[in-house]
Amino acid sequence: MQKSYLRYWILTVSTVLMTLIYANNVAFNFTIICMIPEESDSVPMNEVKYVSGNNATAKPVPQSLKAHYDYSPLQRNMLFSATAAGTLLGGLPLAFFADKFGVRKTYTMYSVMSGAATLFLPLSASIDYVALFAVRVIQGIGLAPIYVMLSSVSAEWATVATTGSYLICLSAMFQFGPIMTIPTAGLLCESELGWPAVYYIQGVLTLVLTALFFFLFRDSPVFHPAITEKELKTIQRGKVMSKKSLRVVEKVPYTSIIKDPIVWVTLYAFFGDELGYQIFQQYGPIFLNKAHGMSVHETGFAATIPYMLALLTKLIIGPVSDRITIASDRMRINVFSIISQGGAAICFVILALLPMLFGKVPIWIVQVFYSSVNLFCGVGFLGVLKSSEIIAQHFSHVLMAWESIISSLIVLILPLAINVIAPKNTVEEWSRVFIGVPCIQILAITAFVLFCDSKPRKWTGVDIDSRQSESSSEAGLEKY
Prior knowledge:
A hairpin with a 2-residue loop joins strand 1 (47-52) and strand 2 (55-60). The relative contact order is 0.13. The chain is an all-alpha fold. The protein is 73% helix and 2% strand. Helix 8 packs antiparallel against helix 14 (296-302), helix 8 packs antiparallel against helix 15 (305-322) and helix 13 runs antiparallel to helix 20 (427-451). The protein has a two-stranded antiparallel ribbon with strand order 1-2. The protein has 2 domains: 1-32 and 71-249, MFS general substrate transporter like domains (Growth Hormone, Chain: A), CATH 1.20.1250; 255-480, Growth Hormone, Chain: A (Up-down Bundle).
C-alpha cells in the first residue's frame, strides 16, 4: 500500500522557514548590545573595553565603529520600530498579491526580501544609519505574511484531526526563533567572528529554505503534482471544500464586523496580551544587560529561558485544554485569558516593586519573574486568539489580520514610548514601565471576561446549532 507523508514535509519546511524569518527580525534585538563594545573610562575614545565574562581588555577600535554603531537612544529605538513599519507596509498589498499570485509565490517573494536584507544588514550598518534603517524596514516587510502562512498551511494541508497540532507547530516559530538566535548571537558576539556572523548564517539559511519551500509547497494539496490519491483523500476527509480550492472569492461583511462591539473587546484584549509579550520580546536582552548588568554571554542564555517556558506551555496546556470537557467554551476561554494576562500583570507589578522596596535585587529573582511573564503570555493563545477563531469562523482571517496590525503598531510605537520613559535603561525607569503595562492588561482582560463570546457571531452566517459547524470549529481549534 502506497504511503505519503507530503503534508508533514510541507509542515516542516514551512515551520523552519517561518522560524528563520522571525529570527531574522529578532536577532537585532540582541546584537545591538554588542555591535559596539562598552567604553572604558580609562582608555581613549578610539579604544574600547571588550568584555568577556569577568575579563576586560582595552583594544583599539577604528573611529568609524563609533560613528556607525554608537546610536543614541532615539536612533536605537527607531531601529526597533523600523521592522514594524516594514510589516505594515508589506501588509498593505498582501491581500492583492495573495489573490493574484497565490500564497506560494507571494510568500517566496517576501522570504527572499527577508533573507537578502539579513545578509546585507552588516554592510548597511557599516555604511550609515539610514542604510541600516532601510534594511530593517525590508526585514519587517518580509515578516508581513507570517499570519497568512500560518492560516494557509493549517487550513489546507492538515487533516481535520490534526489542524490544532499544525497550528501549535507553526505558531511555535514565535518561540523557536528567539531560542535559536539569541544564544547563538551571544556566542558569536564574543567570538572572533563577531555579531555580523549571525546575519550571514541566518541570511544564507533563509534563502536556502526559501528555494526548498518554493519547490515543495503548493497553495492546496489539490494542485500538488507529487501527492498521492490516498493522502489527498486523507487530508480532505471531513472537510468542507475550502474557498481556495474552489477558487471562489467570498465577500467579507466588513461593516457588520466593524459595528460588532464584541470584536472590539476581543481586539482590545489582544492588545493587552500582545503588549505584555512585546515588552520583553524587544527589550528583554537590553533590560537584563543594561539595567541589571548581565554580561552579553549571560544575557543570551537568560533571555532564551522565557521562550523555552512559553514553548513548553503551548505543548502541554494545549492538549490539556481540549480534554477539559466539564467546562463550557466560554469558561475555558475566560480562565486561560485570566491566567495569561492576570499572571503577566502580577509579574510586572512584582518586577516594579522589588527594587523600590528592597533596593538591589538578586538577579535570579529578577529572572524568575522575567521568565514568568512569557510563560503566562504563552497561555494567551487558548484565550483571546481561540475566541477570535470561534466568533469569526471562516472570516477569522480578518480578525487575525487586524490583530497582526495591532501587533505591528505595538512594535512601532513601543520604542518611542520606552525612549521617553526609560531612556537610560535604569532599574528605576523600567519600574515605571512595569507599573503602566499591567494597568492596561487588567482593563483589557476585565472587559474581555465580562463581554466575550464563544459562539459564532451573526455576521458569519453560521448556524450555531449545526453539528457540522460545531465539529468543524472544534476540529479547527484542536490543540490550538
